[in-house]
What we know:
Number of helices: 16
Largest sheet: 8 strands, mixed
Oligomer: single chain
Order of helices and strands: HEHEEHHHEEHEHHHHHEHEEEHHEEEEHH
CATH superfamily of the largest domain: Alkaline Phosphatase, subunit A
Radius of gyration: 22 Å
Strand order of the largest sheet: 5-4-6-1-7-8-2-9
Amino acid sequence: xxxxxxxxxxxxxxxxxxxxxxxxxRPNILYIMxxxxxxxxxxxxGNPWVKTPAMDSLAARGVRFExxxxxxxxxxxxxxxxxxxxxxxxxxxxxxxxxxxxxAALNSALGxxxxxxxxxxxxxxxxxxxxxxxxxxxxxxxxxxxxxxxxAGECSTFxxxxxSKPFLLVASFINPHDICYMAIDAYTxxxxxxxxxxxxxxxxxxxxxxxxxxxxxxxxxxxEKRCPPIPANHGPSSDEPAALGRYGGFRGYVRKHWTHEDxxxxxxxxxxxxxxxxxxxxxxxxxLRETGLERNTMVLFSSDHGDMDSAHGFEHKxxxxxESARVPFMVSFPGHAPxxxxxxxxxxxSCVDLLPTxxxxxxxxxxxxxxxxxxxxxxxxxxxAGWREDLAxxxxxARCLRTxxxxxSRFEGPGPQDLLTDMERDPGEMVNLATQPRFASVLAEHRxxxxxxxxxxxxxxxxxxxxxxx
Length: 470
């Protein structure tokens, strides 16, 4: 196809869009995502144990949301949610397993929406979606399956190309996800079990590199001066739901057997893996600036979910606690997003709000009936009419509701199932108010609202958690 033909097709596509979304006015969009990075794992979020200059630069040039949560803090459900704009329960998806994703959902997924509207669409890096989802089936050119060092290079190559259309580029990095292997390997070694995930050579190499202690320091000086301390919420919540005490395998093993030194080394490696991916993100952002594309490119950065990072004696994800469910979410767009603003008010879903937000900036109408909404007005004006008062979070063995002040979680039984925390007075989620009679009305109201959200989402598993209750 000639440049003239490409330009003609592009103008034709633009003619079907609203006047404000004509080709010459539509921005490029760069969506950068990491894997298993909680919201506090950035130096711009006040973490003194990690240095993330690339992420910090996005925060300095845009808006950082402090109340952004994954729709389900596990890889496959969260990632499917991001690309489709649906909660994972829409696909009967609770964890990293097979799930029915119908053709209609593929056709209306992120890449196809943008491609059909005249955008060039490219995806690089980690996917981790259920079959039949592939980059191609949801409307992307798959520029590389490399999730690590090669991804930044391929994204930079893409950015340096001549673009006759505006583009949507998704850069999906794997780290700091490799932190998973510290607990897995500690468990298998202690129990003399065959190695789990024996094919994961690169991942273990990255963890080994991240675990190296700084040169020139004794071990004592390292722990006194350089290694992150145990957090204040390392212990279990009071009257924690029974489900949290039933974890076996590597999660149960490290919760029972790891020493404070083990946990601190885990936190050290998690920081180093985050710095590693930050450097790769920096390479992509450098190219964006060097090519001059930064002026007309909206950049959105987030993660699929977090990591417990030793809070409540856990690592890994899948829990409704802040470290697992709350993630970075930042929007940077020169001339459109105010610089350096922190939004501590609006409850945002990093997954179901993603597709409507990107569509809004591109002038594309999202599919009808999606549960999320665009954060554009919040970014540009600091507010949005009728913004949600609560936000549902789905987990593999629980359902959760985050309101302005409280967080309520309902776990799968038997045993005590409710967890209610006051996020203003108890941000570490250490005191379970669900067992205190004076909070009975607060508990009842949050139960009611969570059940209402479950009904709105037609969430059968959520319904099952309240089975037998009126």
